[in-house]
From TrEMBL:
Protein's UniProt name: Flagellar biosynthetic protein FlhB
Any one GO biological process: protein secretion
Pfam family name, one: Bac_export_2
Species in which this protein is naturally found: Marinobacter santoriniensis NKSG1
Keywords: Bacterial flagellum protein export, Cell projection, Cilium, Flagellum, Protein transport, Transport
Length: 108
């Protein structure tokens, strides 16, 4: 499972965060970037038909995590709702996580 979060702060910067969800552990941060790198993360997600979800506040929180960090327990519910929606629009279920199908994603 990949998730991309895109944010614009008051200075107009853009940030993206990709999450991986394997269906067994909490989602982990697999990529994060600002400006051109954020645009590239989003481009790759779109290229692979990964659904994007936009939420600047959530993106700001996720961008503070390090690569390979699991999301904090306080975000489980909101991330679970986003993942459930991403799976739903792809005709999948969370039980499909980790299989060879395209991974749902969200753009913040």
């Amino acid at each position: 499972m990949n998730q991309t979060d895109d944010q614009r702060n008051t200075e107009g910067s853009r940030a993206a965060v990709a999450l991986k969800y394997d269906g067994e552990r909490a989602p982990t941060v697999t990529a994060t970037g600002t400006y051109e790198l954020a645009d590239e993360i989003i481009r790759i997600a779109r290229e692979h038909n990964v659904p994007l979800y936009e939420n600047p506040e959530l993106a700001a929180i996720l961008a503070r995590l390090s690569l390979n960090d699991e999301i904090p327990e306080t975000l489980y519910r909101v991330i679970a709702e986003i993942l459930a929606f991403a799976f739903h629009i792809q005709g999948r279920t969370p039980d499909d996580a980790g299989q060879d199908k395209p991974s749902p994603s969200a753009d913040q």
